[in-house]
Amino acid sequence: MKQPLAIETTNLAKIYGNGNTEVVALREATMSVRRGEVVALLGPSGAGKTTFLTAVGLINPPTSGQVSIGGQMVMDGPRAKTNLRAFRRNHIGFVFQRANLIPFLTACENVQIALEIGGAGASAARRRSLELLDYLGVADRENNLPAMLSGGQQQRVAAARALANRPNVILADEPTAALDSHRGRQVMELFAKVAHDHGAGVIVVTHDHRALDVFDTTYEMEDGFFRPSLEQPVSQ
Amino acid sequence: MNLATKDIRHSPGRFALTSFGIGLLLMIVMGMGGIYRGLIADATLLVDRVGTDLWVVQRGTKGPFAELSRIPANLLYRVLSVPCVRQAREFVYHTIQREYQGKPLRMAVLGLSWPTDRGEWVPLVAGRPLARSHYEMIVDKTLKLPLGQRIRLGKDTYTVVGISASMVSASGDGIGFVTVADSQSIQYDVAGEAVRLEREARYARGLHSALGAQQPLLVQQAYKSSAELPAIALPQISAVMLGLAPGADADQVARIISGWGDVSVYTRQGQHVLLLHGLVEKARRQIGLFRFLLTVIAAVIMALILYTLTLEKLHSIALLKLIGAPNHRILGLILQQAIFLGAVGYAIAYLLGQKIFPKFPRRVILLNDDLLQLALIVLGISVLASLLGIWKALHVQPNEALA
User: Fold this and answer.
1) Could you tell me the pLDDT band of residue A165, with boundaries at 50, 70 and 90?
2) Considering only alpha carbons, which residue of chain A is nearest residue B316?
3) Does ipTM come in above 0.90?
4) Quick check: is A198 in a domain?
5) A124-152, pLDDT tens digit by residue?
6) Which residues of chain A lie closer than 8 angstroms to B321, CB-CB?
7) Which residue on chain A is closest to B396 by alpha carbon?
8) A139 in any annotated domain
């Protein structure tokens, strides 16, 4: 049985500047991701991968096109159809190239804050944070500040934070760039596990072709387009 | 989870140092307020403490605290004849500067109307009031003269028999209390040579006057002491202080005495107002203005500190926005830190002030009302100072977390 759509973009375009300084970063980008599906987004630097990801993540409004998440249209061109910050809080988890943890919070608190922002009480938030850290294998570092964690451990904590509010969508921008190949693969497998276990649609921007077997679907971008040869997603 | 305290916990040393700096600044603001109060209290101290209802001073003058006032000593008996006047005391007040143990000693000398007034009203911390009509002295502890100390003023030596607390002049000099007669001896003391020269000059003036030509024997009297010459007035006093009978109408008594033509009369409240609007007005306004400027400077410095603290957290703030934190959560982080910084700074200012202000040469008076007012000002400053940081935080875009 097919899972419902987690993400759907239709003809997304993003143009920066105007006139002589106009740069088209994204053109006609259409993509569908089902719940539990893990999608890799490949392409050279400047291809528009991050622009696409931030548009889907509702932090960089597109110039035109639509974004629907969990069946709800949230962006119609640059116009928001809902409170984007509240929508992000409840439906989207982010993981970045750098773990982007809050430096003055411990590993556990970095997860806990996302839960509290989502409306959880302090004790419930702490309990779930510990569960997530345990699920991701970093429970023993719960009281460490980010500066005391390795790159891989930081990414695991960031993944735990992304999962905290049980989002429909997880967006990851080169999450393995700072890791060695072994750790990188571990993180990719982690996203696959998260997608399958939690039923989230996951898009991972990556340069790392060695771990493509982990993904359910692969898209490749160039000059703001999904490449014609790969316009139809390649199922692994 | 309180993000403000978590951030402070992350770098406690820097927060402590910043709070200490703000505390020092607020201590100066607090101190200026205390100096302002001290100035007013010192200026009005005598008028408040001496316990008199009316001041009789030289006609047309504003009294001995504002300017020179000279009235004859026998006015004392004239005012006693006015109905409702229960008590009259002479008031002699002047400032001297002598050398004591190689250091300058400035003292306001106040004459007590012996034997009516022996200084029982003076708050003593050691010793006793005056027990003899001459050569005894009560001094304020700021003069640092020990009990039993003998000090030469003019041609006489005085023994310190009492030490008072917080009895200083409007200019901050400690007051020395002696009898009126001793006070006049100190005030009008002149060197022996000057006395001899004055007698010679008096004789020469007599010789060249018509009276001297007509009665040469009379001119011989010029060599006698001033006290023996009826033509020369006795030393004058600065003012007469009146105590009225219970229930007496002070304004009515003042009107009667004012009608005499050679004196002016002020109530205690009138002297109070004259002191505040005359003697210390400029200093009072100067300190008040300086205090205001310091408060503004403290606000600007706090705003810059909080703005810098916010700038350092911009990435975290962008991240919080990215994961959906509502604005009030982010504003709370900045505002709580600002208020916490202000509160800790205020506490440091208060504690340091309690240790440091007593060592100031003049009184620094911290009134509860002033402390409460400053606490509210600090709260206001903290909120205002955080606005710049809040404005910056509100303009951070969530995608800046990706930079």
Assistant:
1) confident
2) A102
3) no
4) yes
5) 999 999 988 888 888 899 899 999 998 88
6) 85
7) A59
8) no
Q: pLDDT confidence of B222, banded at 50, 70, 90?
A: confident
Residue B306 distance to chain A (closest CA, Å): 17
Residue numbers in A near B309 (CB within 8 A):
none
- pTM, two decimals, is 0.73
pLDDT tens across B295-353, in order?
Answer: 888 888 888 888 888 888 888 888 888 888 888 888 888 889 889 989 999 999 999 99
With 90 as the cut, is the pLDDT of residue B27 above it?
yes
Nearest chain B residue to A122 by CA: give it.
B1
Asked if A213 contacts A19 with a C-beta cutoff of 8 angstroms, the reply is no
The distance of A173 to chain B (nearest Cα, Å) reads 9
**CATH code: domain of residue A193:** 3.40.50.300
Total tally of structural domains belonging to chain A: 1
Of A89, A145, A173, the CB nearest to B323: A89
Q: What is the DSSP letter of A213?
A: G
Binary contact (B401, A116; C-beta < 8 A): no
- Inside any domain, residue A226: yes
Q: A113, B401: Cβ pair inside 8 Å?
A: no
Pick from A60, A88, A104: CB nearest B323 = A88
CA distance B180 to B111: 4
- B212, HSE (Cβ side, Cα atoms, 13 Å): 12
Phi, psi of B225 (to 5 degrees): -70, 155
Contact across the interface for B7 and A104, Cβ inside 8 Å: yes
For chain A, say whether B397 makes contact (Cβ under 8 Å). Answer: yes
Considering the domain boundaries, does residue A214 fall inside one? yes
Q: Structural domain of residue A29, as residue ranges?
A: 5-97+167-235
Cα–Cα nearest to B1, from B333, B321, B316: B333
Q: From CA B211, how far away is CA B202, in angstroms rounded?
A: 13
Q: Label the pairing between strands A38-42 and A201-205.
A: parallel
Three-class secondary structure of residue A49 per DSSP: helix
